[in-house]
Amino acid sequence: MRKFSTDEIADFQPATRLSVAGSHPEEAFGFVNPPVYHGSTVLFPSVKDMAERTNRYGYGRRGSPTMSALQEAIGAIEGGVGVVLCPSGLSAVSTALLAVLKAGDHLLMTDSAYDPIRTFCDNVLARFGVEITYYDPLIGGDIASLFKPNTRAVFTESPGSLTFEVQDIPAIAEAAHARDILVLLDNTWATPLYFPAHARGADISIWSGTKYLSGHSDILFGTVSANARAWRALAKTHGDTGMCVGPDDVYLALRGLRTLAVRLEAHQKSALELARWLETRPEVSRVLHPALESHPGHAIWKRDFLGSTGLFSVVLKSVPHKAVAAFLDHLKFFGLGYSWGGFESLAIPFRATPYRTATRWEPEGPTIRFQIGLEDVRDLKADLEEGFARLNAAAAE
Ligand SMILES: *Cc1c(COP(=O)(O)O)cnc(C)c1O
């Protein structure tokens, strides 16, 4: 029966790693997939074994063969020292921040962060005595000018939520590491496949598995990977706070992970085609997609990323709100709803202006974020074309 060592797997191409890592047919009667272990109690053979913790697993919250399979598979594409599993992307972020910060520490937080992360910082971290400064996502190596004696961590997200600023992670990491400051990255958009976070300087790589990892809009999930600098703190806080995920969701995440590479290629291709087409539309002022040559962050994206995914935004030319509603309300394939990364296309109107505190974001017209799903791109384009006809009719009324 085939059996690969962790070192062998690390030499395979990423898509191959996604296929083989965490699969142990030799331990599962030949079955390719691991069993889904439902369990809290794990029995020990004797008091001596209990005292010496000889079992590989001691209690359901702390691990199971199903969880290990997923941790191994994610670890194989993250390339860090270890991975922990969390019940949502937001809890993955909060776990990572709680792992590295203590009262009196200073945190630098990107102004383009996913908004609920800001809420966690302002409502929870601040209450526990952490000082938070929001910074311009485009600051690059000048982040050093914001360091204080108590700065412990820099939180990054690239590209930024809704507004897609591309951050210079290697420059930020170089400045931070010179002062022994940790770099955390929310890598949900690119995934470890298209942005190798640790190799680019992130000590902690966070992934909302609700999105492309699961890929089917049927679970909430989050993962955190750490390098040697951050792993002990992460593993300890994850265990101490009781973070764990039910076995069925762990299994669904593993099932999603196996097809990540092919799904991302499809999302990438369709999203780029539609983004390029949207750039030519008279109703559109700007398309915020890092893989477009017109994007201000394109050069850094090209230098650091290995691909682009299915999520981007557009800034429309100035039209009344009712025209935007006419566009969105009757789209056939684009659902109106939060989250993304599933097989289905989505579109939401958004206003990023109120979130900002360190920078201003004042677009020239209404803004829409698109998630391009796995439908045939011709159907999606026709849907959007009809939407623009409705938008123009409503704007002319
Ligand atoms: C969705 C999202 C999260 C949070 O993930 P949940 O699973 O919804 O909690 C965190 N960061 C980014 C960038 C996201 O898009």
From TrEMBL:
<dbReference type="InterPro" id="IPR015422">
    <property type="entry name" value="PyrdxlP-dep_Trfase_small"/>
</dbReference>
<keyword id="KW-0663">Pyridoxal phosphate</keyword>
<dbReference type="InterPro" id="IPR006233">
    <property type="entry name" value="Cys_b_lyase_bac"/>
</dbReference>
<dbReference type="GO" id="GO:0019450">
    <property type="term" value="P:L-cysteine catabolic process to pyruvate"/>
</dbReference>
<dbReference type="Pfam" id="PF01053">
    <property type="entry name" value="Cys_Met_Meta_PP"/>
</dbReference>
<feature type="modified residue" description="N6-(pyridoxal phosphate)lysine">
    <location>
        <position position="211"/>
    </location>
</feature>
<comment type="similarity">
    <text>Belongs to the trans-sulfuration enzymes family.</text>
</comment>
<dbReference type="GO" id="GO:0030170">
    <property type="term" value="F:pyridoxal phosphate binding"/>
</dbReference>
<comment type="pathway">
    <text>Amino-acid biosynthesis; L-methionine biosynthesis via de novo pathway; L-homocysteine from L-cystathionine: step 1/1.</text>
</comment>
<dbReference type="InterPro" id="IPR015421">
    <property type="entry name" value="PyrdxlP-dep_Trfase_major"/>
</dbReference>
<dbReference type="InterPro" id="IPR054542">
    <property type="entry name" value="Cys_met_metab_PP"/>
</dbReference>
<protein>
    <submittedName>
        <fullName>Cystathionine beta-lyase</fullName>
        <ecNumber>4.4.1.8</ecNumber>
    </submittedName>
</protein>
<dbReference type="GO" id="GO:0047804">
    <property type="term" value="F:cysteine-S-conjugate beta-lyase activity"/>
</dbReference>
<keyword id="KW-0456">Lyase</keyword>
<dbReference type="GO" id="GO:0019346">
    <property type="term" value="P:transsulfuration"/>
</dbReference>
<dbReference type="InterPro" id="IPR000277">
    <property type="entry name" value="Cys/Met-Metab_PyrdxlP-dep_enz"/>
</dbReference>
<dbReference type="InterPro" id="IPR015424">
    <property type="entry name" value="PyrdxlP-dep_Trfase"/>
</dbReference>
